[in-house]
Amino acid sequence: MSNENSTKKSQTDWARVDALKAHEIDLSDCPEVSEEMWSKGEMFVDSEHVSSKPQEQLAIDKDIIEFFKSKSIDYPIRINHVLREYVEEHKAR
User: Fold this and answer.
1) Which of 44, 58, 67, 77 has its CA 20 to 30 A from that of 28?
2) Rounded CA separation 60/35 (Å)
3) Burial level of 24, CB count in 10 A (0-12/13-18/19+)?
4) H or E segment at 66?
């Protein structure tokens, strides 16, 4: 195996890239994300956050349970993942 490519200096102006604001990025060659794309997507569940801690019972509305059940057989893990993301997002604020 050759290290030829790993020793070349990047020609990318990373300082300029880092300074770009979201509205300055040209996404014209990227397709818009459609509902169909979302419906085909799969959620990655980080098993590091699935704990063996004692669990609590929680009352969750039936329609919410049915929604998650329709998306995955591991719906309890997905519900926990969604709640964890919510908590992490709000901890940062």
Assistant:
1) 44
2) 26
3) exposed
4) helix 62-71
Q: How far is CA 82 from CA 7, 27, 42, 53, 72, in A?
A: 42, 28, 13, 18, 13
pTM for this entry:
0.43
What does the block give as tokens for 68? Answer: 């998650």
Estimate to the nearest angstrom the gap between the alpha carbon of 18 and the chain centroid. Answer: 22
> Is residue 82 pLDDT above 80, yes or no?
yes
CA atoms of 33 and 12, how far apart (whole Å): 27
**Residue whose entry in the numeric block shows the structure tokens 């569940």:** 45
Tokens of 91: 């901890």
For the stretch 71-80, pLDDT in tens is 888 888 889 8
Convert 1-26 into a string of H (helix), E (strand) and C (coil): CCCCHHHCCCCCCHHHHHHCCHHHCC
Question: Tokens 């901890």 identify what position?
Answer: 91
DSSP 29: T
CB 14 within 8 Å of CB 20: no
